[in-house]
Please model this.
Amino acid sequence: MPKQELLIVHEEMEGERLDAFITEHLEYLSRSMVKLLLEEKKITVNGENKKASYRIKEGEEIAVTVPEPKQVEITAQDIPLNIVYQDKDIVIIEKPQGMVVHPAHGNWDNTLVNALLFHIKDLSGINGELRPGIVHRLDKDTSGLLIVAKNDQAHRHLARQIKDHSFNRQYIALVHGTINEKLGIIEAPIGRSKTDRKKMAVDKNGKEAVSEYQVLNRYQNYSLVKVKLLTGRTHQIRVHFAYIHHPVVGDPLYGPAKKHFDLAGQALHACLLGFIHPSTQEYMEFQSEVPQYMQKIIDDLKKIN
Model:
């Protein structure tokens, strides 16, 4: 059955385009899908049909009738997986750069989930068919450690730790410019960009986002940092370091347009995961070395210094 979403326009949202407002608040709907729903008159503003470019006003009620999603069958694929640890509740995977975590529009194959379905017998079903076992994500071009839940109890336990900010996630990043201080903290709320729907941005009306960092090394025009996430917003590290004018090297969305070091994506690696095990209640911690593609750049920079 179709479901109906009801959105209320608050004062700070007044003046936004109708289509932008909907995609910002219903993130599972793409801009093209919203356009189609408007054309099919499945979106109303105070009961009336409006164009995508309509500028919304405070107090208006926007009703969106979302059609029932089509069934999509996700296939198991024999894709190599680097399984660091596994027991009856969890799997720790080291994801390579370039691998998408879960299937989505335009990318139904060769994802981590396709590989998990082949290699792992049981996966939690909390996130549905498209994201079985997936508790948290890494961007396609971010490498490193990722935890997968094999049952719903484990999934809920791990998700609660992430929500409570007790889940320890640390990353190594190579960023542009010299960061002078040894330690720092970035506290800047993050929301969907108003100008580019593929991007996130620091936004006073966004969700709380906090990143702690330590400078490990400084090179000519670059800094190597370790970052601890205290929250887990989409693209958080990439957005935060771009915000303080030290974008992650190789970042195609938030970094400079000019390519550096012929990278396929950002130089960002999830190097540490620490959490309370769902069954044993003991703290577990896993670490991952910087991958070869990043280590080569670091070695080359050391030679220049």
